[in-house]
Design goal:
This is sulfate adenylyltransferase. With about 475 residues, this protein is an alpha/beta fold. The chain is built from 15 helices and 17 strands.
Length: about 475
């Protein structure tokens, strides 16, 4: 896959932007929905965008972040960690001595796409808890329409297995392979022809092919969707090792706040400043740690390949050597679904043991492939995340809008403006030119170790093209 850098992913990450309203935390009354408005984040390369409407228009009541923390304390595991979504961490992996029998019991085989393989892995290790398989039609319809499973539990996006096969039918047991390796078996209990335009309109806010996920649903996914229970056989082999929720949880301190930082691009100085400062946010308790948890599965076509991103994270982890950070990699396929994806990310990180989610301006957003216009409003994702934060038992963390200044280094954008400080920025175009041309990239913008990895990748791409 070619190495490409998008203007949006790298440009203006240090420039000031309009501040969102100050945090307001609300938890539900007997009939209420949760709400929490938060301030924005200025790292467009690490945090993305979104839109959606509330599934519940009930009234809300205000209360403090301490009340949400009290709810979280009631749902701690015996180890003092955040309870998984639905209070059960799923593990679908079959014991080694039983795997051949499961394989022998399958009557059909389907080779998984990269996206399918990510879904299979997260199902098997519990990243999608409480799901124990691909959604059946009833759960699919419910999630599409209401962002909830038929049980009433919140879930952001449907998780389904797709196919063009006319032969696979309910009752069949299908072996799922990926790159020739048997990774799981699924017992089909539901197969249907989905209303894809409706799915896209509800989940992505549009049915236009200008949206990358609508293109994926329309052009990559098969004619039919299938649901059924899954048995895990072997996790996909990846160049970046993906720790399971149980493995990540084993590294977390008991009875402490755990912040999740989601990204899908290399981490530059501004991004690092954001999650380090988030550890001292007003609704974060002393002793908190941050899980830096990048997605390394398929994203947009013009994003940097996962293996390159992984290399940048590894060198930064070594360079930072910060005991308040935990690092892991998520085998998740981005949908760029804005608000719905924010909910999905919060659920996944809850399953990995996180209590807080750092969410910023344009979380998981995208632009039209024709007009370049944003599909979602700047604060749509924050608003939907806030609407559901208390019900999920996850707090959203106020993210700072920061800028780099000649006089004081990194400060908040409002301080830079009030004091008339000189802010510096580096455009995406200029950054790419400097990478390819060997120019000195300022250390206030990017870590030297990260730049070296990106330059090596650029060189590999150029050599391959020649």
């Amino acid at each position: 896959m070619a190495l490409r850098f998008t203007q949006r992913a790298q440009a203006g990450v240090l420039s000031g932007r309009q501040q969102a309203p100050a945090p307001v935390v609300r938890v539900p009354s007997a009939t209420g929905a949760a709400r929490c408005n938060i301030s924005q984040m200025a790292a467009s390369g690490a945090m993305e965008s979104c839109s959606s409407s509330r599934a519940n228009q009930a009234t809300v009541v205000r209360c403090s972040a301490a009340a949400v923390q009290a709810v979280q304390q009631q749902h701690r595991t015996a180890e003092g960690l955040q309870a998984p979504h639905g209070d059960k961490l799923v593990n679908l992996m079959v014991p080694a001595e039983q795997r051949q029998a499961v394989i022998d019991s399958c009557t059909k085989t389907i080779e998984c796409s990269d996206r399918n393989a990510c879904d299979v892995e997260l199902l098997c290790v519990g990243g999608f808890s409480p799901l124990e398989g691909f959604m059946n039609q009833a759960d699919y319809d419910s999630v599409v329409a209401n962002m909830r499973l038929t049980s009433g539990l919140l879930f952001g996006l449907p998780i389904v297995l797709d196919t063009n096969s006319e032969d696979v039918a309910p009752g069949d047991k299908v072996l799922l392979t990926y790159q020739g390796t048997a990774i799981a078996a699924v017992t089909i209990d539901s197969k249907w022809s989905p209303n894809k335009p409706l799915e896209c309109l509800k989940c992505y806010g549009t049915s236009s092919l200008e949206h990358p996920a609508v293109q994926m649903v329309a052009m990559e996914r098969g004619k039919y969707y299938m649901g059924g229970s899954v048995q895990g056989l072997e996790l996909p082999s990846r160049v970046f090792p993906c720790a399971t929720p149980a493995e990540v949880r084993a590294t977390l301190p008991a009875n402490a706040d755990v912040l999740a930082f989601q990204c899908r691009n290399p981490i530059h100085r501004a991004h690092y400043e954001l999650f380090i400062r988030a550890l001292d946010a007003p609704n974060v308790q002393e002793g908190a740690v941050c899980l830096v948890h990048p997605t390394c599965g398929p994203t947009q076509d013009d994003d940097i390949p996962g293996v390159v991103r992984y290399r940048t994270y590894e060198v930064l982890k070594a360079e930072a050597a910060n005991p308040r950070l935990r690092w892991a990699y998520l085998p998740y396929s981005m949908h760029m679904a804005g608000p719905r994806e924010a909910i999905q990310h919060m659920i996944i990180r809850k399953n990995y043991g996180c209590t807080h989610f750092i969410i910023g301006r344009d979380m998981a957003g995208c632009k039209s492939t024709l007009s370049g216009e944003d599909f979602y409003g700047a604060y749509d994702a924050q608003n939907l995340a806030g609407d559901n934060a208390a019900e999920l038992g996850m707090q959203t963390v106020p993210s700072l809008n920061i800028a780099y200044t000649e006089e004081q280094g990194y400060v908040t954008a409002d301080v830079a403006k009030e004091q008339g400080l000189t802010t510096l920025s580096l455009s995406g175009t200029k950054f790419r030119q400097m990478l390819r041309g060997g120019g000195d990239i300022p250390e206030w913008f990017a870590f030297k170790s990260v730049v070296e990895v990106l330059r090596a990748a650029v060189k590999e791409e150029e050599e391959a093209n020649n």
